[in-house]
Amino acid sequence: MSGSTTSSERAFVLGLDGVPWRFIEQWSDEGALPNFARMRDEGASGTLDSTRPPTTPLAWPSIATGVWPDKHGIYGFQNLSSEYSHEMYTSRDLAQPALWDQLGPAHVGNVPMTYPAREINGTMVTGMMTPSTDREFTHPPELQAEIDSRIPNYEISLDYPEYADRPDDFEDAVDDVLANRRDLMEIQMDRAGDDWQLFFFVYTAPDRFQHLVWDMDRLRAHYAQLDEILGDVMAYADDHDADLYVVSDHGFGPIEGLVYVNRILEQEGYLFRREDEGTRGALASLGISRDAITGALNRVGITEETLVQSLPRRLVDSVAEQIPGDHALYDVDYDRTVAFVHDTGNCYINDTERFDSGIVSPSEVPEVKADLRAAFESATDDDGDPLLVVHDGDDLFPTDEGSPDLVVCGRGVYESR
Question: Most buried of 42, 109, 119, 268 (most Cβ within 10 A)?
Fold first, then answer.
């Protein structure tokens, strides 16, 4: 959106992480979000298709580069090697140029997956997945000192599991992060002056907030703050005759259950664990296993679900964050494993061409893939409804032979882990 009917030579991209379009539609129609309402009236709007899986590390690079993950090369938070090692993706792994590599001067703030900061024509402050503010996270480097001076105790991300049992404190913490992010945007606006071609700034606060808060009144109040920010950005874009784009990486919704997909693979005989690793091995030597423990609990009327519900939410959320597909692979016996899920829903067949300890020949991959798909799709809840949606990696990522074989996502109110 700009003040003229012709395309501008400047663009401002305002990113709002995890914002569902249905909230913007409803609350702007009700008059609670006047700036969003103005954008809808004067511009074009609608639901964007996200990546599969619809997650931050895939979607923001796709927005920034204009290509799907099979072309930009990032499939999650962690890269998977042929030796089964896991390393965090960084901006160096991006295989295609981003907008800020092609337009300049550019000013980029808090965009996920941009660490380490690139030496672009302009300024960059890296976002989510930056290890720490103790590391260099800006370009030029001296910008970091200005941030430290103007925003004491600046934080890049908010560790929301820490607040799982303190919702009021969490809301205050999110408000503080949002205020600090507005201050950061102002710093970069001051740096930009009138000499810029691209401004690309992301607010991750709505995503963080919605991970713990799903109360419509509190969400609406948070979105009212986002609307105020949008008003500031609209005025800035109008003053600089810039086209304005407001985008999100994915939507959001309530989660009623977690589906541990590697557990399904274990139960179906596709994934095997080594019983000689660390604590698991010590317990196994005493005849203690997960199945033995859950069996004993069941005999006295305690299910896994009951046990989890009785634990402090902070503990459950913190542990759950550590056992998506990647962290649950530390003790996999790859010499016997047919398939495993890595990161968020990325299912890999352990084939002999791709992995050092692969056991599936390339000729067997299509049949194994079909069997895996059937196994995932047969998982149902107590009402008999399917828990998962399964996508073929060849359909999602046709240009990259190293992409996942399947992508397994939660259906409806379920999330795959």
Answer: 109
